[in-house]
Amino acid sequence: MADETSATDKNGGFTGSCLCGAVHYESAVGPVLVGQCHCEACRKSSGTDHSTNLFVPDDAFTLTGTLKYFDTTADSGNIVSQGFCPDCGASVLMRNSMMPDKVFIKASSLDDLEIARPQMVVFASRAPSWRHLDPDVPTFPEMPTRMPKEVV
Asked: Residue ranges of the CENP-V/GFA domain (predicted)?
């Protein structure tokens, strides 16, 4: 439960930043969906075996500071742009050409991690054998062919 010092406001908005503080962001709304991804791009950009990402509408998102982007081509053929702080290298967000009106915020950059409880896991077939996957969270071996309607 959020208290008065929490970075999550009572309207569901939240804040975050990079490691050095040169980049800050704010979302006026809570996440539409929180997903955990085990694809290679998410794994390598996170520095661990997965990335937890919060989907928010681009028009509810404000960024201060400058990010550097690195583009990769997803299995689907979509372009995924990873946004990093050019000073400290922290991964802050990503954008996907399939959903240009959404921002995918890296949970590692949140001020309040409690809002990042995964609601789905994708590319679970690529998770390492030692990764525990919560049996109560919908899990897909690859990317589902259809995303939940609230996301797209």
From this structure: 14-131
